[in-house]
Amino acid sequence: MPERNLVSWKAMIVGYAKSGLCQEAMKLMYRMRTEGFEVDDYILATVLTACGDLLI
């Protein structure tokens, strides 16, 4: 994606998490942070919930 913003990061991360691709979602969260964006509570809760569901 040529230009990234908070909305595009959130869409990608939540999409991966809800598709059960937790490792990819977590990698994107890390990359998001390294590029200077803050992970908000919604993103964190979505990824943790989706990853937790995989364990059940």
From TrEMBL:
The keyword Oxidoreductase does not apply. Keywords: Repeat. GO terms for biological process: RNA modification. Pfam families: PPR (PF01535). One of its GO terms (molecular function) is RNA binding. PPR repeats lie at residues 5-39. It comes from the Eukaryota. NCBIfam families: PPR. This is Pentatricopeptide repeat-containing protein. The lineage of its organism: Eukaryota, Viridiplantae, Streptophyta, Embryophyta, Tracheophyta.
